Amino acid sequence: MEYTQAEDDIQAIRTYFEDLAESNAAQFDASTLSYDCLDLSSLSATQCKSCQMVTGVQNVYKFKDVEANVVEIHMALLRLPQFTTDILITFNNTLHISEGSSSQLAESSSSQAAWTHQDFLALVQSLVIVNESLFG
């Protein structure tokens, strides 16, 4: 993504989280639970100048459902100002599917375990940028 100009890195990830909430029609039903800054030495993507993470919850209306599903959002923002680029990684965990939701059938047929914060952290920390020419 194009590098977002923001007051600071927390404001940048907050902007992305709010944009996602708006895209999910959840801009009035979204809350952030935590912000975290990852130590750059824990990242495999050594080109990153900062890595911010946010965990939040959004009440998301799927298709034309009248009841919202509750979705936990894990989001990481890896900032590469030297390439005027941001890398945004998200995980979505459905915490609750409303009774009238079109997703109700999918939930009853799925026994897959939810992603954990540790799964998300492992993904973010293992990302490697192999070819910098990707950025122009």
From TrEMBL:
InterPro entries assigned to the protein according to its UniProt record, in alphabetical order: Mog1, Mog1/PsbP_a/b/a-sand
BP-aspect Gene Ontology terms: protein import into nucleus; regulation of membrane potential
Keyword Transport: yes
Annotated GO MF terms: guanyl-nucleotide exchange factor activity; small GTPase binding; sodium channel regulator activity; transmembrane transporter binding
Assigned keywords, A-Z: Protein transport, Transport
Pfam families attached to this UniProt entry: Mog1
Family indicated by similarity: Belongs to the MOG1 family.
PANTHER family: RAN GUANINE NUCLEOTIDE RELEASE FACTOR (PTHR15837:SF0)
Designated name of the protein: RANGRF
